[in-house]
Structure formats: C-alpha cells, structure tokens
Specification:
heterodimer; A: 261 residues; Rossmann fold; 8 helices; 10 strands; B: 249 residues; MetI-like fold; 10 helices; 82% helix; 0% strand
C-alpha cells in the first residue's frame, strides 16, 4: 500500500488518570473505501481505537494520520453508530437523522434544508425504511432504530464510518438483514468503514480485511485479508469457503487466548 | 381514561369531606377540637374578602420565591450535573443545607429583614430549589456517553451538546421537579407567615387560632390546599405539554 488513507503509526493511548495504556504500539493501514473489521475479546482496546480515529482522544504516543494529516481533535469527518441506537426520543426520525448536519453545517443548514431532506430520504430508502419519517424512535423496532442510526451516521457524508458493535443487540434474523443493509450502504456511499465486532461471521461477511486485536494493552495481533468475492449474499454464509474462513479466524483467536492463559 | 378514572379525584375529595362531616357529627366532637367541614366552608364564604387578600399575599410571595428557585435550581443543577468537581464540592453542602429545617431559619431572616414579605420569599425559595437542582443534575447525568461522542466527534462544542441533548433530555426531570417545588414554595411561605408576618394565610391561621376561631383556621388550611392543587395542575399541564415524548401512550 503506497499511500494509506488512514494510518495508525505506533499509536499508544493512555487515558487520563489510568495507570496502564488501553492501546500500546498499534499499527494499522486502511485504504480509501476499504471495509475493515476489528475483532477481539472484550476489553482489548477496540473501542479505544474508535476514540483515536474519531479524534475524541489524541494519541499519547505515535500518530493517527488521515491522508497524511495528523488527527488530534475531532474533524467532523467521521460518522458513528453504536450497539445502542441512541436516537433522541423527542425528535422524529427525520429530525434525528438531520442532527449531525445541524452541528457540522450550522448556518448553511437552514439555507440548504431541502437538499438535506432529500439526502436523508435517500439514505432511509437505502436501508429499506419507508413511511417512518414522522414517527418517533419508540414506535420503531430495535432493528429499524439501528437502521436509522446508520442513516444518521452517514447524513453528513463522512469519509470514515465507525461502527462499534452496531448489530450486537439484535436477534439473529434482524442482524443478517442489517448486514445486507450495511453492505448496500457501503457500496452506495463509498466510505471507509471500521467495524468493531466480536461476531466472527459478521466480520467475514462484511469486511475486506479483518484485524485481530488482543492483549492488555490492546494491539493488532494479525491481519487477514478476506478472500470471499463481493457482493456477498446470505446464502454465502453456509458455503464451505465461508465457514472455513470463520473457522480459521476462530483458531487464530484461540491461539491468542491460550498464549495469554 | 375511563369514566371512573375521570370522576375518581372529585369523588375522593367529596368522600373525604363527607367522612369528616359525619365523623364529627356522630361522635359529637366539640368545635374547638375539630369543626365540621361545613362550618369551615361557611367561614370561608363569610370571610371571603379578607381570606382572598391574605391568599394573594401568600401566592405572590411563594411565586417570587419559586421563580428564584427555578433560576438558582437550574443553574446549580447544570453545574453539578456537568462538572464532577462542582458535584464533589457542592453536593454534600447542598444536602446539609437542605436538611436544616427551614422554620428554624425564619427568626434569622427576621433579624436581617424584619417581618413581612422578604422572609416569606426567602423561605419559599430555600425550601423549593433543592428538588429542582437535583432533578436537573440527574437529567444531565443520564445523557448517554455514546450520544455525546457522536456530537463531539462532529466537532460540537460543549454548549451545543448541552442545548441539543442535555437540556431536552433533562426536561422531563425538570418539569417533574417543578410540580414538587411549587407546592413546597407554598409550604415555605406559610411557615414564614406563621411566625413572622402580618399578612398571608399563615398569619391568618395563627391569629385565628389564638382567638380560638377554629373554623377559620380550617378555612385557611382548605384555601392553601386548593391553591396547591391549582398550581400543581398548572405545572402538570406544562409538563405534558413540553415533554409528551417521555410518556408513551
């Protein structure tokens, strides 16, 4: 990779008032438009990595670079979605999706309201939601709320989408539907995605490259590029190639855990 | 709401007075111990002009005290809800302050301001700001950290996070506390009037009781209760108006 889009270069992160670092000497290179998944056990620093990339916390040691520029504060160039949809209950669905634009665009937002609205509607259609604009979050199921949360993360056309276990709280069927919706969103928006998950099948389904994190402090242990062709369908989940890929990943994690134990 | 639910509050109040009236009559209780509610209402009607005048005194001092409470309560609540340092510094202090019986402070206010409206306003304020401050602080403290991350990652300032998320999020807590605080403000004003005023329902009751006009004392109590319900209802209405999203049907 000649010129990585996003690069973590020997990064360590120690939170204020913490003795041990959450992440130590981490290296990662992501190409523009790449979909990467970061897998690992709880507490291995996956969420801390998100805070570094979003600029919420500056690296204690090393550099996080986006197109060569060092990130040390929020840039407004990322969208985020979490396990909990965190929609605002006093706003309807459309107003919830537009929230990031109110912050990023400020004055411009009023002037270009019509344009913003059509973008919000386009995203809603992409994730397969219809007739929900004027509903309130509690009127939607968990899976639908999570789709709205993805729309909100993408409304300001960020170059990087950070997903922190966004499908972890959903039932198995809804989860698979959301994988498809996510794949569609990714190919429609061309953005770079970093997905943090501990669901290996999900990582294999969605990602181009899978990073295995481990240890305390957290760091990348291995990177595996995913050989499966795109676009992927839910039938692929049951093919031998897919299952083998998940198995390999599971073994790799098993080895890491044994070494630690 | 069913028909039964609609009439239940009125039935309860009427039933209470009927029970009281019958009890007094059946057991032949003397008037200076417990008058009948009908005697109290008769007195209320007979002396409606002076009672209204004194009620107005109580209402306006309570409202001034309550207004100060809202301002100070929201400010303190925002402070301790947002800053861990302010929380650590102020919380024990506020709890201690709130534990002091406000009636014990009235003599001090009399030394400072003399008798009359200022001690009533101050007591109304001191008794009612605490629930507002605690509720606003709770509302702010329950904002999901993920949501703050979403906004801060977009480059939102602390003020933007406060106005877009913190303030609306704490609104149900704030309006719930107003209902409690407004009735407390009346308690505070009346406490002060009982020992340090020459106007107000509290003053009316204490002077009626010292001349053994017991039905008038009860007329005063009924007046305070009615005013309390009235203001509670106003703030309950405001609450459903502004925070309907928090109450799913």
């Amino acid at each position: 990779m000649a010129d990585p889009f996003l690069e973590l270069d020997g990064v360590s992160l120690t939170y204020p008032n913490a003795k041990a670092p959450a992440i130590a000497d981490m290296n990662l290179k992501v190409a523009r438009g790449e979909f990467i998944a970061v897998v690992g056990a709880s507490g291995c620093g996956k969420s801390s990595m998100m805070k570094l990339v979003s600029g919420l916390f500056p690296a204690t040691v090393g550099q996080v670079r986006l197109e060569g520029r060092v990130i040390h504060r929020p840039t407004g160039n990322v969208g985020m979605a979490f396990q909990n949809p965190t929609l605002l209950p006093w706003r309807n669905i459309l107003e919830n999706i537009l929230l990031p634009l109110e912050v990023v665009r400020k004055k411009d937002f009023r002037a270009k309201k019509a344009e913003c609205l059509s973008e919000a509607r386009r995203l809603l259609e992409l994730v397969g939601l219809r007739d929900v604009e004027n509903k309130f979050p509690w009127q939607l199921s968990g899976g639908m709320q999570q789709r709205v949360s993805l729309c909100r993360a993408l409304i300001h056309k960020p170059e990087i989408l950070l997903l922190d276990e966004p499908f972890a709280a959903l039932d198995a069927f809804t989860k698979e539907e959301l994988w498809m919706a996510m794949q569609d969103l990714w190919s429609a928006t061309q953005c770079t995605v970093i997905l943090v998950t501990h669901e290996l099948r999900e990582a294999v389904f969605l990602a181009d490259t899978i990073y295995l994190m481990g240890g305390k402090p957290g760091r990348v242990i291995t990177a595996r590029s995913n050989p499966l062709a795109r676009p992927r369908s839910l039938e692929d989940v049951y093919t031998p190639a897919y299952i083998a890929e998940v198995q390999d990943l599971r073994h790799a994690i098993g080895e890491v855990r044994e070494v630690r134990a | 709401m069913t028909r039964a639910e609609r009439i239940a509050p009125y039935a309860m109040v009427i039933g209470f007075f009927v029970f009281w009236e019958l009890g007094v009559r059946i057991f032949n209780v003397q008037e200076f111990i417990l008058p009948t509610p009908s005697a109290a209402f008769a007195k209320l009607y007979e002396l409606r002009a002076p009672i209204a005048m004194n009620a107005w005194q109580t209402v306006w001092t309570s409202m001034v005290g309550f207004s100060i409470s809202v301002v100070v309560g929201v400010f303190l609540g925002a402070l301790i809800g947002y800053s861990k340092l302010a929380y650590a510094a102020l919380y024990p202090f506020l709890v201690g302050f709130n534990s002091v019986p406000k009636a014990a402070l009235v003599p001090i206010f009399v030394i400072w301001f003399g008798i009359g409206s200022p001690p009533a306003i101050l007591t109304a304020f001191l008794i009612s700001f605490f629930p507002i401050a605690v509720n606003v602080a709770t509302g702010l403290a329950t904002v999901e950290p993920e949501l703050q991350d979403v906004l801060r990652a977009l480059g939102a300032s602390k003020a933007e996070v406060f106005f877009k998320v913190g303030l609306p999020r704490s609104a149900p807590y704030f309006f719930a506390s107003l209902k409690v605080a407004v009735t407390l403000a009346f308690v505070g004003a009346v406490i002060s009037e009982i020992s340090a005023s020459n106007a107000g329902i509290g003053y009316l009751m204490i002077s009626a009781s010292s001349s053994l006009q017991v039905p008038l004392v009860y007329a005063g109590l009924i007046t305070i209760a009615a005013i309390g319900i009235f203001f509670y209802a106003i703030f309950a209405l405001l609450e459903t108006r502004f925070t309907s999203w928090a109450y799913r049907k």
